[in-house]
Amino acid sequence: MARTPGAPANHGTAAGADSPGPPAAVTRTIGRPLLPFAITTAGAFASSFLPGADVVARDMALALVALAGTAVLAALALRWPRGSLRVAAAVAYLVFVVFLVLGQGNLGSGSFALALLPVLWTGLFGTAVESAAITLATVAAIALLAVFGRQAVVVTIRRSALWGVVAAGVSVALHQLRTWFDASLAERNASLRESEILSGAVKELTSLRTEAAVVEAATRVAGQLCSPAGGTPRRSVYFAVDGANAHILARFDEAGGAGAGTIALADHPPLAQVVSTLKPVTTSFEAVTLGPSVGPTVVRSGLTHGAAVPVMVGGVLHGVLAVGGRNEPVYATDRLVDLAGIVELALANAKANEALAAQAATDPLTRCANRRGLLQAARLLPGRRPFAVIAADLDGLKGLNDRLGHEAGDGVLTRFADSVRSVLRTGDTCARIGGDEFIILAHEADRDGAVRLAERILAAMAGEPTGVSLGIATARDPDAFDLAVEQADQAMYRAKREGGRRYCVASPVALAS
Question: Does residue 324 contact residue 253 with C-beta atoms inside 8 Å?
């Protein structure tokens, strides 16, 4: 699988410019790259003083000065990577080699082979331009020695050409090796990063208990998974398909940007292909192929490539997880498929948990909330917003059960629950808390709104053999919910004492606010 190459490996350790000195770890890091060069140089220099050597003291002294300068420049170049420092260190070493050969008094000695060390240095730690510069400097050093030794021009040209070819070959080989190594390291790091993201996704997604939370987290993970470290951030979207349209349930984009909440499938051919084939798709975006509900968003967001995978739950398409790339393809599509499998398991788990939670908070006969469901709804009340509590109790249900049986009574309870649900707004709650006792919680409802709701409930129950008595209480403070229930219950009993089939309103003075 192709991947985006990472940045070249850092062969030196950078430290802050204001630090008092290199710590031990930095010193060791600098010493390791220089050690092979130092050992080779020390051996070549020591060989100059073997028996029979005719050493020129002045040239040897100059060689030592050049070598000391090389060591300083090389250490600086490794600690603060700069091309100028690396080239300066390599040139200083070539000067050392020239004076070493002159100090040995034998231009034909093998010591000039040390000139390959700067080539190795720039090949390992420098750029291709630096290597080319040092190759030319090596040829220049050959020419300089030829001048000192009064060698024939033909010999000088032949030696310079030979050394130039050797230096160039070594440089090319080292740079190719570094490119391969950096690519392999980037591949390994990318694989480790993707594995870590997927491992974290398994733990996170399987711990979530709602479909909405799973979809939101999966969309974020998809964007992170398919975004190369340090690269251009990608955009990820989770689509729910409804007939000819796709609705965006979640969106993640580190670069910002929004888009339409609903798009037409016909305007997004790659997405339509995933929906029709239920198979992953990778594509590149062309504005002319995208419809009006998609094209402007793609152009505005800078998306050029995309990948999408279906998410199946129970053999049915739950949604499509899509990732858009900017200026480069989405490479980690196989990982995206792996993520989709994790999401499918997490969604199935979340659906099961939601079903169990709903069952635990629902009255099985009327399908209203039970007492637990009512308390859950009360915990969601916003602060300093009006709400109303209506206590309801069916009139004469016990007599109906005695005359016609409990099945008839259950029918009345079910029809009452259906009637209440038909007049409630989305977000309001009707809960059965006893045999024939109900509590209705209405958000954003003041006294007048609660009265209108009670009148609609009474009208819906007008044709039933049993009536209903209602008690109304209103409040603003969520902490007053229990008190509102108590006041509504007292008002309901007052309505029942007054003959039933009516409502009574608790005095607002008695309620906390």
Answer: no
The residue type of 487 is: Q
**SS3 category, 393:** strand
> Each residue of 444-465: pLDDT tens digit?
999 999 999 999 999 988 888 8
Whether pTM exceeds 0.70: no
E-strand ranges in 289-355 read: 305-313, 316-325
3-state SS class at 318: strand
Mean per-residue pLDDT, 414-430:
92
Q: For residues 308 and 227, what is the distance between their CA atoms, to the nearest angstrom?
A: 14
Closest CA to 450 of 460, 442, 439: 442
pLDDT of residue 256: 64
Q: Which two tokens stand for residue 11?
A: 């062969």
d(CA 103, CA 118): 20
Angle made by CA atoms 284, 288, 290, in degrees to the nearest 5: 70
Contacts of residue 20, Cβ cutoff 8 Å, sequence gap at least 6? none
243, with CB counted inside 10 A (0-12, 13-18, 19+), is exposed
Write phi, then psi, for 504 (nearest 5 degrees). Answer: -130, 150
Query: In 315-386, where do the E strands start and end?
Result: 316-325
C-alpha–C-alpha distance, residues 323 and 253, integer Å? 10
Contacts of 2 (CB under 8 A, 6+ apart): 331
Whether the CB-CB separation of 217 and 225 falls below 8 Å is answered with: no
Query: Which class for 204: exposed (0-12), middle (13-18), buried (19 or more C-beta within 10 A)?
Result: middle
Q: How many CB atoms lie within 10 A of CB 260?
A: 15
Residue 454, Cβ density class (10 Å: 0-12 exposed, 13-18 middle, ≥19 buried): buried
Q: How many CB atoms lie within 10 A of CB 420?
A: 23
Rounded to whole angstroms, the Cα distance separating 236 from 234 reads: 7
Distance CA 220, CA 204 (A): 12
Statement: residue 496 has pLDDT above 50: yes
| pLDDT, averaged across the chain | 84
- The 10 Å Cβ neighbour count of residue 331 is 20
- Answer for the pair 474, 387: CB distance below 8 angstroms, yes or no: yes
DSSP class per residue in 150-211: T--HHHHHHHHHHHHHHHHHHHHHHHHHHHHHHHHHHHHHHHHHHHHHHHHHHHHHHH--SH
CB-neighbour burial class of residue 332 (10 A; exposed 0-12, middle 13-18, buried 19+): buried
